[in-house]
Amino acid sequence: MTWLVTGGAGYIGAHVVHALHAAGERVVALDDLSTGVPERLADLEDVPLVTGAVQATSLVAKVLREYEIEGVVHIAAKKQPAESIEKPLFYYRENVGGLESLLRAMDETGVDRLVFSSSAATYGNQDTDVLTEDAVCRPESPYGETKLVGEWMIADVARATGLRYISLRYFNAAGAARPELADTGVFNLIPMVFERLTAEKPPLIFGDDYPTPDGTTIRDYVHVADIASAHVAAVRHLASGVEARHVLNVGTGRGTSTRQVVETILEVTGRQDLTPEVLGRRPGDPAISIASAERIRQVLGWSAAHDLRAIVTSAWEGWLYHHPEARRVATTPGG
Predict the structure, then answer these.
(1) What is the pTM of this model?
(2) Ranges for the NAD-dependent epimerase/dehydratase domain (predicted)?
(3) What average pLDDT does the segment 80-105 reach?
(4) Any idea which architecture 2-174+221-250 has in CATH?
């Protein structure tokens, strides 16, 4: 089969493209390069990279026809909860409008398999620590709302057309399979700490008054290589021809507090001499978000393979690859 990966030059998208290619799948990448980096796919000479946006329905339909695409992995989206609170219409245009355009192109060309990049942000604050897919979603940001609307849209289209789909609710993606594929954005906790260390400043913690054991938020951190392998499992499930209309968590089932993550980063980089600085909470951040990973094990036979230290170590190697000046602040041989 041939799969189109939208957002294929992005951080997660490129990992998915590489994983699918390594698994023997034929892949075409589509990316508007607003945040994507073509060099992430430079070593994949047989993977075409089409420059364009999913909002361009006619372009997407042309790509689907020209490359005889049989399934789509839709990752292209804007993904910052805090930014979405400031720019809700932008997020609805990009995430909901982009998906609507893609689904129209798929319907027009008869492509009936879809893996959708959803998010744990759909859950919002819940009364339980471990989140199952059956929870009533209460997103706390327009970003989370757009992902939930996307799931609804896909389910409605599936009922009308027979579309087979798997929506994957990622928890906190981090790390890198290879240094050159690392996240170049500084929007999430781990790269934000790296940026502070590179500037020889203490890490920042946003809020230490949450109802958690150490007062900081708790998240389920998933190695991006594991997220990529979940996509391979989803693609193969859809390719098997079985009926598929699933919403699945992609997580480890383990929670780690922000303070614990920061302490692990300081250990890996050898900067335990630094004391984190605590600031106020960020809007849209729930206190606890941990995946129940049971359903994805049952449906796809998938489970995460990496722990937090592997995530942080690989992320630091990626940061050093893109920011060699950071080597001067590390005090350990591993740094």
Answers:
(1) 0.95
(2) 3-251
(3) 96
(4) 3-Layer(aba) Sandwich (3.40)
